[in-house]
């Protein structure tokens, strides 16, 4: 692993953190929420660098990436936030010496395979279903994966109970932690795996304490923790940020996502019925943010990597 070639080794990583907070790209509400999460997790290094550096403790090992957020009533073929970022990050890991595999809800398997072919992500893609067990790995990553609240219930961002959609995999991450397998979560609201790390903070930040509509009285915030949590305004952006950080740390610019690849992924996802999770419709957009803005953010990340790798 090399140090970044820019004059200040931390500067590009600070910029990546700023971008994944959504500053200049996401809504003011999302930016403020993510900034407060970052403040609660602040340490000696930018969060994206901390996450990327943790990967290199298992350099050359097998990384299992989990994604997929399926709600039959709203996105029966899944939402596009999560899978696109997972593909970009899995490709970055594969190109920098790791073995990677993607584990995704079965409703998304064909779409993820199509998009993988679009960007040249040549890693195994495995369906998750009710009979699926936690695969052995050296590190596990969840990207925008719904997490159970203290009552064991999964929720949408607006407090609806998820039934007959994404199967819960919280037990996988509990098992990994018991086995001392490092875990990382990339998530954007609070109802995803990983937010057990910030459970009380998220309950204090989200409207009405992250309450829900289903009657369980335990709210939407996930109580499932991971070793590292990377909050972001849009989960795909967090995964793109980690991929960019990996590219910088290894001097491998081809590990980063290019803006034209983001555009292609968004188009393919929309055509195949993988929906914007806020609009709940097929659109050139992600989490309510226009596709054009997301492409611009990726372009800024790409320029950072080209300048520093």
Describe what this molecule looks like in 3D.
The protein is an alpha/beta fold and 309 residues long. The protein has one domain (11-308): TON_0340 (inorganic pyrophosphatase (n-terminal core)), CATH 3.90.1640.20. The chain is 39% helix and 11% strand. The protein has ten helices and eight strands. The protein has helices at residues 11-20, 28-41, 47-55, 83-95, 109-119, 170-178, 199-205, 235-250, 259-271, 291-308, and strands at residues 62-67, 99-105, 125-128, 139-143, 183-187, 228-231, 285-286, 289-290. The strands form two sheets. The protein has a six-stranded parallel beta sheet with strand order 3-2-1-4-5-6, with helices on both faces. α4 (83-95) crosses α5, α8 (235-250) runs parallel beside α10 and α9 (259-271) packs antiparallel against α10. Residues 3-8 have low confidence and may be disordered.
Question: Which helices and strands, and how do they pair?
Answer:
Layout (H helix, E strand, L loop, with lengths): L10 H10 L7 H14 L5 H9 L6 E6 L15 H13 L3 E7 L3 H11 L5 E4 L10 E5 L26 H9 L4 E5 L11 H7 L22 E4 L3 H16 L8 H13 L13 E2 L2 E2 H18 L1
Parallel strand pairs: 1-2, 1-4, 2-3, 4-5, 5-6
Antiparallel strand pairs: 7-8
Helix pairs in contact: 1-8, 1-10, 3-8, 4-5, 4-8, 5-9, 8-10, 9-10
């Amino acid at each position: 692993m090399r140090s970044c070639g820019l004059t200040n080794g931390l500067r590009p990583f600070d910029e990546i953190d700023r971008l994944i907070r959504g500053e200049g790209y996401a809504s003011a509400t999302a930016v403020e929420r993510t900034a407060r999460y970052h403040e609660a997790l602040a340490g000696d290094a930018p969060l994206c660098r901390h996450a990327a550096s943790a990967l290199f403790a298992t350099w050359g090992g097998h990384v299992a990436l989990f994604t997929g957020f399926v709600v039959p009533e709203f996105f029966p073929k899944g939402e596009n936030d999560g899978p696109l970022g997972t593909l970009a990050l899995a490709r970055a890991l594969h190109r920098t010496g790791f073995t990677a595999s993607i584990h995704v809800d079965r409703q998304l398997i064909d779409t993820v395979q199509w998009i993988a072919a679009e960007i040249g992500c040549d890693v195994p893609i495995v369906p998750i279903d009710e009979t699926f067990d936690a695969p052995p790995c050296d590190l596990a990553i969840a990207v925008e994966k719904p997490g159970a609240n203290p009552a064991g219930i999964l929720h949408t961002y607006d407090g609806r109970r998820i039934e007959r959609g994404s199967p819960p995999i919280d037990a996988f991450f509990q098992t990994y932690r018991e086995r001392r397998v490092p875990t990382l979560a990339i998530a954007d609201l609070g109802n995803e795996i990983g937010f057990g790390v910030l459970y009380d903070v998220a309950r204090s930040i989200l409207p009405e304490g992250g309450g829900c509509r289903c009657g369980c009285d335990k709210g939407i915030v996930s109580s499932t923790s991971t070793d590292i949590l990377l909050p972001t305004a849009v989960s795909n952006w967090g995964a793109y940020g980690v991929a960019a950080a990996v590219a910088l740390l290894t001097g491998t610019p081809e590990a980063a996502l290019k803006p034209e690849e983001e555009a292609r992924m968004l188009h393919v996802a929309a055509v195949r019925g993988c929906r914007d999770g806020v609009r709940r419709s097929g659109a050139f957009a992600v989490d309510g943010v226009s596709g054009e803005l997301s492409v611009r953010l990726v372009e800024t990340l790409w320029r950072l990597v080209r300048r520093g790798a």
